[in-house]
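Researcher: Can you fold this with adenine in place?
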Amino acid sequence: MDLKKLTFTLIFCLVLVEIQAQRIAIMGALDEEIAILKEEMGKYKTQNKGGIDFFLGKLRGQKVVLLKAGVGKVNASYSTAVLTENYRPKTLIFTGVAGGLAPDAMPGDIVIGEQLVQYDFGQIDSTGFQVSPFRRLSGGNHQELFIQADSELAKKAKTAADQSELEPVSGRKPRVFQGIIATGDVFVSSDQKARELYDEFGALATEMEGAAIAHICRTLEIPFVIIRSCSDNANNHARVNFNSFVGPASANSARIVLGILEQM
Ligand code: ADE
């Protein structure tokens, strides 16, 4: 390759990387969680990488890449890895539903994740399960148990939640909580487990992806925030409530994402 061609190729690649670096990534785990945003984008381009569809378009004037991560920590980690390798997003916003754990949280209420904790990573011995206080990384460092979301994004999420026209769920206007979200590879449908997660970690909601995404974003220094709207209370009735409220709760969480984008 002659020098002219090489220079052209280099500039082309740099421009391409620059264009991709400017996108904001928006992720949900389920179709319901990204449906409104996909509709709101109107025109978008679909790219498939590693078996995942990435929807490239604009929302509220911002260049975004939208994707469905799939359910659970493995799916979330894989999707986040493919996303970051291919698009190098400047920010990541996760939107979706959760089981509410705060005693006064009801289906429809919003939880903005200021800290994320993987509650099912630890050891089991004769005394039972103990969560590990840190996670060893391949480079020899440790990832802490509680992972902090970006405080500026969390602030924007709170403003958006307060100012957005959120739809009533089950006849009630959603309340907004900010705090800890507990992540594990389990759909929690147990009064006892819900109480334990609240008592042990101070978690206000539980879900299946947030801490995995947080772990990767912290490692790669990508500012992130996790927005959740409660579809249920992670109690004995969780499955029935989830089926009733996953649609409206997902839609409210997506409205908050739009409100965040308007502030950027
Ligand atoms: N996502 C929504 N509800 C949930 C629950 N009860 N447990 C785990 N993830 C959830």
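Model: Folded with adenine in place. Residues 22-262 form a domain with the Rossmann fold fold (CATH 3.40.50.1580).
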